[in-house]
Design goal:
The chain has nine helices and four strands; from the N terminus they run αααββααααββαα. It is an alpha+beta fold and 476 residues long. It has a single domain, classed as Up-down Bundle (Outer membrane efflux proteins (OEP)), CATH 1.20.1600.10. Helices cover 60% and strands 14% of the residues. β3 and β4 form a beta hairpin. The two termini are 85 Å apart. It has a four-stranded antiparallel beta sheet, with no helix packed on it. The protein is elongated.
Length: 476
């Protein structure tokens, strides 16, 4: 091409550039981010919320404050009281009776007629030519008696009742431990739920920042005349969705904080800050070993076994309802008009009691006790199966959570690289803005998955520790 042709071409291109219209700005509203959603603290916030809280610290507070733990502890006291009542039948029984009485005697006589007398004094009267007299006398008498009795032999019926209540007391102790472990698990689950929710807030904030940066990039390209108005609209739409996701994540975090405070046993409005706590690892190499450990440690199984023992003693005691019993008794009594020791007496005796005809009372007790034994044995089987199922489920959940965590970490690395490539292509003018928004959505999803998978590992570890009977154990 000649120099003249080149000049004409430059002039033509310049004319087209002068005639080009400025970029069209889309008529869309700006996107604003609302402030974080926070509940106001209570008037007197708990001291527990003043410093970052670990999972073990949260459990320790819950074991002290949770009402269901206090109720279970009271059940032990009640069971101990029943055992003590049963034991009293094997110990000497003492009694004291004492009293003061004011007794009186009224007498009357007559001659040749009739007489009348009234209490409250002495009166005399005569009718029909006769005469008579009435007299009254009153005196204070005292009496006192001390008695003692001791069961000598009843074929072990009372001892069986003591053993039954003692077994029930041990069952109540195991149930208290079970309540502690259940409370600890609930607190740990709520703790890691809240931790995940806070991580999701951080992810949503990062997503919002990325969406804002992508909107700025679309505006810059539009202003340079190389971008499309649709890119800006698409970027603003994605930014609005990011704001919505952030608001949802913040609300979920507040709800989980309320749930954690409630699980701990404090005012649900109490602000809480968490540490970077993690559950200790559980060796999952031997699933059958975990089951064996659970059956020897889980308080639910131990309590069910004690209830079977108690039911067996109950059957034994009921079967001896009609057996004779032998008791030793003695008493010392005294009485007198003014001095209670004027007259003294003592007695010692052996009593044989044999209720051989009770109208079916003993048979009914045996029938009831045997049914209770069958129920207790079935409940032990049920508790054993439940524990085995919990160990199996917790084991599978933990193994799968560990695997999903590895996959989530790999997925996040891929999503970061995908976004880097998409944004580079868009900046270079060889990629579509849709690729950027798609890559950002993939990154946001990968970050959410990683946060969820990380928390799943902690929750699964806590559940497996609970399943094998270490739920209330605090880590060093």
């Amino acid at each position: 091409m000649t120099k003249a042709g080149l000049c004409l071409l430059c002039i033509a291109l310049g004319t087209l550039g002068l005639a080009q219209t400025p970029p069209i700005r889309p008529n869309t509203p700006d996107i604003t981010t609302p402030p974080p959603l926070k509940l106001p603290p209570p008037p007197n916030p708990e001291a527990i919320g003043a410093a970052p809280l670990s999972a073990d610290e949260a459990v320790a507070v819950a074991l002290r404050l949770q009402p269901n733990v206090i109720i279970a502890r009271s059940a032990i006291e009640a069971a101990a009281g029943r055992t003590r009542q049963a034991q009293s039948g094997l110990l000497p029984q003492f009694g004291l009776n004492a009293g003061i009485t004011n007794s009186g005697q009224i007498t009357g006589s007559r001659s040749g007629g009739s007489s009348t007398g009234t209490t409250g004094g002495s009166t005399g009267g005569s009718t029909g030519g006769g005469g008579g007299t009435v007299s009254a006398g009153f005196g204070i008498r005292t009496n006192a008696a001390v008695s003692v009795s001791q069961l000598l032999f009843d074929f072990g019926r009372t001892r069986d009742q003591v053993r039954e209540d003692a077994a029930l007391q041990r069952a109540a102790t195991h149930e208290y431990t079970a309540t502690q472990e259940d409370t600890a698990l609930a607190v740990r689950q709520a703790y890691y739920n809240y931790g995940e929710a806070l991580a999701q807030v951080t992810v949503s904030e990062s997503n919002l920042a990325n969406r804002q940066a992508q909107l700025d990039l679309a505006n810059a390209r539009l202003g340079a005349g190389v971008g499309a108005p649709g890119d800006v609209v698409q970027a603003k739409t994605a930014l609005a969705a990011a704001v919505d996701a952030l608001v949802t994540a913040r609300a979920a975090a507040e709800l989980d904080r309320v749930s954690l405070a409630q699980a701990i046993g404090i005012d649900p409005r109490t602000p809480l800050t968490l540490t970077a706590a993690t559950e200790p690892e559980v060796n999952t190499a031997d699933p059958n070993g975990l089951v064996k450990s659970a059956l020897s440690q889980r308080p639910a199984v131990l309590a069910a076994r004690e209830r079977v023992n108690a039911a067996q003693y109950g059957v034994s005691a009921a079967s001896k309802t009609n057996y004779p019993s032998l008791s030793l008794s003695g008493s010392l009594s005294a009485r007198g008009s003014n001095n209670p020791l004027d007259s003294e007496s003592t007695s010692v005796g052996v009593t044989l009691s044999w209720p051989f005809g009770d109208g079916g009372l003993g048979a009914g007790r045996v029938q009831e006790a045997r049914a209770g034994l069958v129920t207790a044995q079935a409940q032990l089987t049920q508790a054993t199966q439940q524990v085995v199922a919990e160990v199996a489920q917790s084991y599978l959940n933990l193994v799968s959570a560990d695997q999903r965590l590895v996959a989530a970490q790999q997925g996040l690395a891929n999503a970061v690289e995908y976004l880097r490539i998409a944004e580079g292509r868009y900046r270079g003018g060889i990629g579509a803005f849709l690729d950027v928004t798609t890559a950002q959505a993939a990154l946001f999803s990968a970050q959410q998955t990683l946060a969820r998978s990380t928390a799943d590992v902690q929750r699964s570890r806590a559940a497996l520790r609970h399943a094998i009977g270490q739920g209330a154990t605090l880590t060093p």
